[in-house]
Amino acid sequence: MKLVNLLPWLSLVGAALCQTAWTLSLKLLRWSDLTTPQWPSAVGPLLGYIGFGIVNTILLAVAMRTITLTTTFAVWTALTLAFIKCVDVIWLQAGWSWTELAFLLLIAIGIVGLKVAAP
Amino acid sequence: MKLVNLLPWLSLVGAALCQTAWTLSLKLLRWSDLTTPQWPSAVGPLLGYIGFGIVNTILLAVAMRTITLTTTFAVWTALTLAFIKCVDVIWLQAGWSWTELAFLLLIAIGIVGLKVAAP
Fold first, then answer.
1. How do residues B17-39 score in pLDDT, each as one tens digit?
2. Residue B2: pLDDT above 90?
3. How many angstroms separate the CA atoms of B66 and B118, rounded?
4. CB 3.0–4.6 Å: which of A89, A96, B78, B83 could bond B20 by disulfide?
5. Helices marked H in A29-97 — which ranges?
6. Counting runs of H as helices and runs of E as strands, what totals does chain A give?
7. Which residues in chain A (13-52) have CB-CB distances under 8 A to chain B?
8. Major place of localization (chains A, B) (predicted)?
9. CB of B116 closer than 8 Å to CB of B56
10. Mean of the pLDDT values across residues B45-52?
11. Nearest of A25, A30, A91 to residue A53 by alpha carbon
């Protein structure tokens, strides 16, 4: 496979990574910190929130130009979910269970299915 | 169940409703109208776009503080998609199919399951 064919897919993976980082920034963001003397600690997440949001949109737009809209959205959502779950478990020490994973899979199938079945 | 336990989930549903209203505002928005003598007709959607976007982010941040990142993202995406589908069918007279309904049901089962299985 040529590199040029791979580019939209790499953009798609990059977009999903950005969306993961964007979600994480939102979680780490403390709006109240922005008005206190400790405000510098809130600037990192705020910049991440804005920056990852913009890069995410750009990469997604690049991917959409070549890959169909449905596929782009489905893969982007599914990848983001998977990445976020990894962050949750590895970094934020959240627990996981097979039950939870099964229900997440149901939601993922529903999201992707709904997008694919759309007329 | 105490109200305090329900609050993050209510925020999550509210965030999804805002995201739906935000998407709808974007659909109704005519950027070109903003530079014509008919610009007042474009102000409503523009205000909705900005307002719902902000409230959406705040409610999402509130939900994330209690619910795990993965669950928040999955439920938010899925609910938004379901709400938009409802708006499409009821308001914008779009068609619907049993296939779509089946996928919506999968999403619903997944969300309820996650809520029940949540630690």
1. 999 998 888 888 777 776 777 66
2. no
3. 11
4. B83
5. 40-66, 69-90
6. 4, 0
7. 23-24, 26-27, 29, 31
8. membrane
9. no
10. 88
11. A25
